[in-house]
Specification:
Belongs to the class-I pyridoxal-phosphate-dependent aminotransferase family. With about 425 residues, the protein is an alpha/beta fold. The chain contains 15 helices and 15 strands. The protein has two domains: about 150 residues, Aspartate Aminotransferase, domain 1 (Alpha-Beta Complex), CATH 3.90.1150.10; about 260 residues, Aspartate Aminotransferase, domain 2. Helix 8 links the parallel strand 7 and strand 8. Bound molecules: 4'-deoxy-4'-aminopyridoxal-5'-phosphate (PMP).
């Protein structure tokens, strides 16, 4: 009893640091669990259910059982030398400039940790960071943990023309509204193109506008490009760092998980000028210090292959988007057919659909302040076995309530999975009409 008394006394003050206030909720914890418990078909969280390419898994096998036992030990802190070297070569090609693998490239535990390093390294107490909505949800808590203030600016949907389906390109920034968000306090803007969750691929004009404002107000750009290879319909992914005045103020974030369909490996990177990268390295060396050597070795080999096959039909970066475009089209058709109006994504492996015609399917919960899209996705996974993610999870608290009629699906799935989703939707449609 003496022990429990003293424990209790110690617990009477808050144990958590102030920086954790109001960031303790995380949509993924809840929805991943719901999907694991109820889903027959999981189109929720963003990961492929098809295998990673053979050349990548073979590279891992070779690294594991080959002669170099040092691959089981620590490697260079900021990135395994073969990986930073090949990333530098690759990005030299993409950006048209010389890069130093040791100072312009840093490897992290997924793009997630690369992002965390950016915010910790570049954002101070009192700094404002502009975030374009809808956004990959971790940006907001990461800015707050660094002591910064997120400032949100929404992509605004323009109604589609003559009854056609909407495209992610119909969601646009209002230039005056965007400009109004830049101030003396603005330290950085987060850009995510191709965008999760909409699949929007920002045009040269849109990027030009953002770049102009960054230069005018001396603002940094954290450019999350993890879906850089997943662009459809002949569209082109443009790197904002290649626009005038932007290299010096941009950190590019990438992910082997997304690039090589191996999200569980958690290998990501940041590419940028040393004047920014040196501070990312300080965060890195004082937090994670080092990422799994063997995964870095295999990813390096994957990139060496892709460098050799660059632009050729055998390249995975050419093949994967082709396959995914087909899958996108199937899911678009499945959803359109049942009246869950899809917004056709130009990139990524996500697709947002309009569920406003399904309100009568979902029982009203009296006095609930849970938004419709949350109630809908929970109801759908429990009653139909189909998992998705509510779109309002990708909005700030202030703007959430304007976007509760949409849900996000992931279509990086085996054809059989997409067919099973279609079967669920078709059955549902029949039940509704009978
Ligand atoms: N950025 C975006 C936009 C993402 O969608 C994701 C993963 N869902 C990440 C970063 C994190 O990538 P990683 O798995 O490499 O940490």
């Amino acid at each position: 009893t003496f022990l429990s008394h003293s424990l209790q006394a110690k617990m009477s003050r808050p144990v958590q640091a102030r920086r954790l206030e109001r960031i303790d909720k995380n949509i993924w914890v809840e929805f991943v669990k719901l999907a694991a418990t109820y889903s027959k078909v999981n189109l929720g969280q963003g990961f492929p259910d098809f295998p990673a390419p053979g050349f990548l898994t073979e590279a891992l096998t070779r690294a594991l059982s080959g002669g170099n036992h040092m691959l089981h030990q620590y490697t260079r802190a900021f990135g395994h030398p073969p990986l930073v070297k090949v990333l530098a070569q690759f990005f030299e090609k993409l950006l048209g400039r010389d890069l130093d693998p040791m100072t312009n490239v840093m490897v992290a535990v997924g793009a997630y940790q690369a992002l965390f390093c950016c915010f910790q390294a570049l954002v101070d107490e009192g700094d404002e960071v502009i975030i374009i909505e809808p956004f990959f949800d971790c940006y907001e808590p990461m800015v707050k943990m660094a002591g910064g203030t997120p400032v949100f600016v929404p992509l605004r949907p323009n109604p589609p023309k003559d009854g056609k389906l909407m495209s992610s390109a119909d969601w646009q920034l209002d230039p005056a509204e965007l400009a109004s968000k830049f101030s003396e306090q603005t330290k950085a803007i987060v850009l995510n193109s191709p965008n999760n969750p909409l699949g929007k691929v920002f045009s040269r004009e849109e990027l030009g506008l953002i770049a102009e404002l960054c230069v005018k107000h001396d603002v940094l750009c954290i450019s999350d490009e993890v879906y850089e290879w997943l662009v459809y319909d002949g569209k082109q992914h443009i790197r904002i760092a290649s626009l005038q005045g932007m290299w010096d103020r941009t950190v590019i974030i990438g992910s082997a998980g997304k690039t090589f369909s191996a999200t569980g490996w958690k290998v990501g990177w940041a590419v940028g000028p040393d004047r920014l990268m040196q501070h990312l390295r300080t965060v890195h060396q004082n937090s994670v210090y080092h990422c799994a050597t063997i995964a870095q070795e295999a990813v390096a080999q994957g990139f060496q292959r892709e460098l050799m096959l660059y632009g050729k039909p055998e390249s995975y970066f050419v093949q994967l988007p082709k396959e995914l475009q087909q899958k996108r089209d199937w899911l678009v058709q499945s959803l359109d057919d049942v009246g869950m109006k899809p917004i056709i994504p130009e990139g990524t492996y996500f697709l947002v659909a309009d569920i406003s015609q399904f309100k009568s399917d979902v029982p009203d919960v009296p006095n609930s302040d849970e938004p419709y899209d949350y109630r809908f996705t929970k109801w759908m996974v429990k009653n139909k076995g189909l998992a998705a993610i509510p779109l309002s999870a990708f909005y700030s608290k202030a703007h959430k309530n304007n976007y509760t009629n949409f849900i996000r699906f992931c279509f990086a799935k085996e054809d059989a999975t997409l067919k099973a989703a279609n079967d669920i939707l078709q059955k549902w449609k029949q039940e509704k009409t009978s």
